[in-house]
Amino acid sequence: MDNNWEDTNVEEIQAYIGILIYMGLVDLPEIDDYFQGDFCVCPIVRQAMTLKRFKKLGQYLHLNDEEGIPDQQSADFDILYKARPALDLMDKFTQAYIPDCQLAVDEAMIGFKGRFFLKQYLPGKPTKWGIKAWGLADSANGYLLKCDIYKGKK
Question: 34 vs 25, 43, 48, 54, 115, CA distance in Å?
Fold first, then answer.
């Protein structure tokens, strides 16, 4: 049990997701930079929540039930189980979007330097370390229609 945990609510989770979206649009080197004090370039982030609370929510927020992880030996084991709801959500967006005639397939690197056995090193890419993915996008506007995470040679 974490003694520093305080229960959350819908508004706080919405603020957390909003901050994540904002971080995707406004690129700063470190998460702490969004919450800096005196000369804050992101006052809307500081008004939403503190850095300490943002990190605490990130520590405990999961997309999938941790207790429902299938056994690694079972046939229905999914290596991307923890991220599967987010990946499945993309399929829902695709149902509502009609792409242009010209599509592009390309590999992409999702920057990541932590420990994860799917992490790749591609020296020829601008982002050298990360998770390799294949994407299908609408050439007219760059809208990502489908994304498939590279899971190895199998």
Answer: 12, 8, 11, 11, 24
